[in-house]
């Protein structure tokens, strides 16, 4: 075995060991979209913390069960995503991509891919209705040296913007 | 055949045996309940809880106590899932594969699992 091969093997072993350890150690937290539950879980799905909102119990026992399952899934996804990020930091993007190739895409990336068409559909709804009298000329937003942008809805969530910077330009 | 090919064949053989066994017996799931059946959790090895059942009377515990109980029961369900995974693999895979399972964090627990004997899942065969 050449020295180079030995190094690659060693790196792969370190990656496999690192992955197991990272998955068990890394925790992620998530809040249910209804804000009725919050959970912290490891990337291997072990629940580490759980908070239930007092109003959650009013939804009935079945709803509480579903709430916990869904929140635990979200927290686990967050933890898996975090472990991917850690892995990429410590081993380099190349190896992290190799892991992704056999272990599947990180959950948030997959979720983003799945949501991309949805964002296009909901975009027009977000456009604010202007009250009469407050009409601004089309060039109001113009930046020097650049063509006037289309009127954009006010974005408060920058994550959406960076997920798809061209969304506002599509019809 | 070099060592890598032999290893790859062994991995493929184990995978096939485990897949065949799993197809016969269904997925490996762990389960745990609190003593008064207030909370029941079903979970797959290495995953978050799949099912959490809460009895109507458990809602009287209040949010903090109920959340803590769910945490305790789900930890036991995870351990149960790992033990079942061991028992399933022991039947088809070689000892090295079973040892590897413990190395990657699936500890084998004791065999007597608190009176639960296959009413929810199909038992060993």
Automatic annotation (TrEMBL), chain A:
Protein's name according to its UniProt entry: YbaB/EbfC DNA-binding family protein
Gene3D superfamilies recorded: Nucleoid-associated protein YbaB-like domain
Pfam families: YbaB_DNA_bd
InterPro entries hit by this protein: YbaB-like_sf, YbaB/EbfC
Species for this entry: Saccharothrix carnea
Region feature (Disordered): 123-171
Gene Ontology MF annotations: DNA binding
TrEMBL record, chain B:
Basic and acidic residues compositional bias, start-end: 1-23
Domain of life: Bacteria
Disordered, as annotated region: 1-56, 106-125
Protein name: YbaB/EbfC DNA-binding family protein
Species lineage: Bacteria, Bacillati, Actinomycetota, Actinomycetes, Pseudonocardiales
């Amino acid at each position: 075995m050449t020295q180079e091969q030995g190094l690659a093997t060693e790196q792969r072993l370190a990656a496999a060991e690192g992955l197991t350890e990272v998955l068990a150690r890394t925790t992620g937290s998530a809040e249910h979209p209804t804000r009725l539950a919050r959970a912290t879980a490891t990337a291997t799905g072990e629940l580490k913390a759980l908070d239930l909102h007092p109003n959650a119990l009013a939804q009935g026992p079945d709803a509480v069960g579903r709430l916990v399952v869904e929140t635990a899934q979200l927290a686990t996804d967050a933890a898996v995503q975090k472990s991917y990020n850690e892995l990429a930091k410590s081993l380099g993007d190349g190896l992290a991509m190799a892991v992704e190739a056999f272990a599947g895409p990180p959950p948030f990336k997959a979720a983003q891919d799945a949501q991309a068409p949805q964002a296009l559909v909901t975009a027009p709804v977000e456009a604010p209705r202007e009250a009469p009298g407050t009409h601004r000329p089309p060039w109001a937003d113009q930046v020097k040296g650049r063509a006037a942008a289309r009127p954009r809805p006010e974005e408060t969530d920058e994550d959406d913007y960076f997920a798809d910077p061209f969304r506002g330009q599509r019809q | 055949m070099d060592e890598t090919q032999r290893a790859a064949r062994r991995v493929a053989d184990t995978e096939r045996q485990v897949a065949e066994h799993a197809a016969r017996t269904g997925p490996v799931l762990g389960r745990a309940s609190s003593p008064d059946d207030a909370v029941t959790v079903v979970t797959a090895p290495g995953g978050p809880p799949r099912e959490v059942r809460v009895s109507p009377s458990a809602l009287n515990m209040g949010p903090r106590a109920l959340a803590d109980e769910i945490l305790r029961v789900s930890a036991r369900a995870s351990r149960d899932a790992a033990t079942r995974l061991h028992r399933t693999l022991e039947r088809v895979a070689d000892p090295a594969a079973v040892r590897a399972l413990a190395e990657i964090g699936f500890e084998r627990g004791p065999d007597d699992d608190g009176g639960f004997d296959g009413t929810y899942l199909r038992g060993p065969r």
